[in-house]
Design goal:
Low-confidence stretches: none
Strand order of the largest sheet: 6-3-8-7-10
Distance between the termini: 27 Å
GO molecular function, one term: isopentenyl-diphosphate delta-isomerase activity
Order of helices and strands: HEEHHEEEEHEEEHHE
Protein name: isopentenyl-diphosphate Delta-isomerase
CATH superfamily: Nucleoside Triphosphate Pyrophosphohydrolase
CATH class: Alpha Beta
Largest sheet: 5 strands, mixed
CATH architecture: Alpha-Beta Complex
Helix content: 10-25%
Structural class: alpha+beta
CATH topology: Nucleoside Triphosphate Pyrophosphohydrolase
Catalytic activity: isopentenyl diphosphate = dimethylallyl diphosphate
Number of domains: 1
Cofactor: Mg(2+)
Strand content: 25-35%
Pathway: Isoprenoid biosynthesis; dimethylallyl diphosphate biosynthesis; dimethylallyl diphosphate from isopentenyl diphosphate: step 1/1
Oligomer: single chain
Length: about 230
């Protein structure tokens, strides 16, 4: 069943037409489907899997920039998450796999789209690729995520011009402040952010200025599959 999107925000419905990169469990490209098709739980339960990225941006004080997803978002609205999470598209410049260039290009594009961060403040070669994470997470009965997620960290002092249709709120946090947010059950957090934090983030954060030793570029970590 294809969901009727009439009840949703017009701009978010438009974005659901974007074409995501469909992959197999080894991150090999096998086709393309719309963002809408890729996020329908019925399709996910039948194995549909797409490529994604997550950016963790730190300022010069080593604080992590978080965003709260806008209420207009179709999946995971109003939830706090890492700096930026989205998908490389099935376009020539975002399909490039060498040195994760397609995913880096997508990350730079979405940082500007969601948070107003200019590309020159986040150069492609400054994104540090840590690893890939494969996870599945329902949003509600209709929608969900099933992704292999490229994890990027970048350290930069940036100027924000937030798009209210994408982002409800932003904040910079220290590790202790983030732990306090996780301990507060009234603060909604995206499932992929929880998985990454519980498994990797705090170790990476403690080594933010020496990330080469933390990289695991060839592994696809399967998280949350019990």
């Amino acid at each position: 069943m294809v969901p009727d999107l009439q009840e949703y925000d017009e701009e978010q419905v438009r974005l659901m037409e974007e074409m995501c990169i469909v992959i197999n469990e080894n991150d090999k490209r096998i086709g393309a489907e719309s963002k809408k098709t890729c996020h329908v739980m019925e399709n996910i339960n039948n194995g549909l899997l797409h490529r994604a990225f997550s950016v963790f941006l730190f300022d010069s004080q080593n604080r992590l920039l978080l965003q709260q997803r806008a209420s207009e978002k179709i999946t995971f609205p109003d939830m706090w998450t890492n700096t930026c999470c989205s998908h490389p598209l099935n376009t020539a410049d975002e399909l490039v796999e060498k040195e994760q260039l397609g995913a880096r290009t997508a990350a730079q594009r979405k940082l500007e789209h969601e948070l107003g961060i200019k590309p020159e403040q986040v150069p492609l070669d400054q994104f540090q690729y840590l690893t890939r994470i494969h996870y599945l997470a329902p949003s509600d009965g209709m929608w969900g995520e099933h992704e292999i997620d490229y994890i990027f960290m970048i350290k930069a002092d940036v100027d924000l011009d937030v798009s209210p249709n994408e982002v409800r709120d932003v904040k910079y946090v220290t590790p202790d402040e983030l732990r306090a947010m996780f301990a507060d059950t009234s603060v909604p957090m995206t499932p992929w952010f929880k998985l990454i934090c519980n498994t990797f983030l705090f170790k990476w954060w403690a080594n933010i200025d020496s990330l080469e030793s933390q990289k695991d570029e060839n592994t696809i970590h399967r998280l949350g599959f019990d």
